[in-house]
């Protein structure tokens, strides 16, 4: 396994290469299908999220199905990840996957805090949840689960990663995504997001005070490659009353200790 930089695909222009637009659309649909959860998603929802007409989305999904990259549940009509994705993922895991060395750390984080704990990875301008471990506290937040994607700076994991990128990369990211405040609320306008980035750097970990779902809080800490790039993040989510005052500071200390442990393991590979 090797450390790898985040893909620049999200910022590349699909018109730069002939035929790339169709590939970009198909790849976007694949990402949406894999992040839809166990029940999959209907073609109408996928078309809307991808910014495509329903016939275009259906045509692309049908082509991906022929290749085994997606599948369709005949009962519900929902589209699901296909068997070829599993085979491809198995091959790619030897290069990109750190879940084998991270899973016990995520589990320890859930046990120590009693909250739901997660490992997420940066992919381009997004984070993708790789591992979820539920804690023992009976009231849980279900904002995040395996395969769910968020733009950088939205969930606590993505805010932690964004905060420790070089300033010029942060500037470029915000220029690429002026839609963040419209889609995710006024707290994601550039000035307010920059303020949260500064707070995260000063504190060492990110705090999301119910900005995605009211009452559901999260904290996140960046995990670094051996060269110091924030490529992953550990995070915790739970209900608001569990994330206040001294307990928030204690959760942050525990989270940072586990993130440091994982960064050390990655550097030693």
Layout: helices, strands, pairs:
Layout (H helix, E strand, L loop, with lengths): L19 H15 L8 H8 L3 H13 L3 E3 L6 E3 L1 H14 L2 H15 L2 E8 L2 E8 L15 E3 L4 H8 L3 H10 L3 H5 L5 H14 L2 E4 L6 E9 L5 E10 L5 H23 L2
Antiparallel strand pairs: 1-2, 3-4, 3-8, 4-5, 6-7, 7-8
Helix pairs in contact: 1-2, 1-3, 2-3, 5-10, 6-9
- Give the averaged pLDDT, no decimals: 88
Number of strands: 8
The H/E string reads HHHEEHHEEEHHHHEEEH
> What does the radius of gyration come to?
19 Å
Strand content: 15-25%
Question: Architecture of the largest domain in CATH?
Answer: 2-Layer Sandwich
The CATH topology of the largest domain is given as Beta-Lactamase
Query: Low-confidence parts lasting 5 or more residues at pLDDT below 50?
Result: 1-14
The domain tally reads: 2
| Helix share bin | 40-55%
- In CATH, what is the homologous superfamily of the largest domain? GAF domain
Backbone structural class = alpha+beta
Give the strand order of the largest sheet, numbering strands 1, 2, ... along the chain. 5-4-3-8-7-6
CATH class of the largest domain: Alpha Beta
Q: Outline the biggest β-sheet.
A: 6 strands, antiparallel
Domain IclR-ED: 84-268
GO molecular function, one term: DNA binding
Organism: Microbacterium testaceum (Aureobacterium testaceum)
InterPro entries: GAF-like_dom_sf (IPR029016), HTH_MetabolicPath_Reg (IPR050707), Tscrpt_reg_IclR_C (IPR014757), Tscrpt_reg_IclR_N (IPR005471), WH-like_DNA-bd_sf (IPR036388), WH_DNA-bd_sf (IPR036390)
């Amino acid at each position: 396994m090797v450390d790898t930089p985040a893909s620049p695909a999200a910022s590349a222009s699909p018109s730069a290469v002939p035929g790339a637009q169709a590939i970009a659309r198909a790849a976007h649909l694949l990402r949406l299908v894999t992040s839809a959860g166990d029940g999959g998603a209907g073609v109408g929802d996928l078309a809307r999220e991808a910014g495509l007409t329903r016939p275009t989305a259906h045509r692309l999904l049908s082509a991906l199905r022929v290749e085994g990259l997606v599948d369709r549940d005949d009962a519900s009509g929902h589209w699901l990840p296909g068997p070829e994705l599993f085979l491809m993922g198995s091959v790619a895991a030897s290069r990109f996957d750190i879940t084998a060395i991270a899973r016990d750390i995520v589990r320890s984080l859930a046990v120590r805090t009693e909250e739901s704990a997660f490992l997420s990875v940066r992919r381009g301008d997004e984070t993708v949840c790789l591992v979820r471990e539920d804690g023992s506290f009976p009231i849980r937040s279900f904002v995040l689960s395996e395969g769910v994607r968020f733009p950088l700076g939205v969930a606590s994991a993505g805010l932690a990663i964004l905060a420790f990128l070089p300033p010029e990369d942060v500037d470029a990211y915000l220029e690429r995504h002026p839609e963040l405040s419209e889609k995710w609320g006024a707290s994601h306008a550039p000035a307010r997001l920059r303020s949260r980035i500064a707070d995260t750097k000063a504190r060492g970990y990110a705090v999301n005070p119910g900005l995605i779902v009211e009452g559901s809080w999260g904290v996140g800490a960046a995990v670094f490659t051996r060269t110091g790039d924030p490529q992953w993040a550990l995070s915790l989510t739970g209900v608001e009353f569990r994330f206040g005052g001294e307990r928030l500071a204690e959760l942050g200390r525990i989270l940072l200790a586990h993130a440091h442990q994982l960064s050390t393991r990655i550097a030693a590979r």
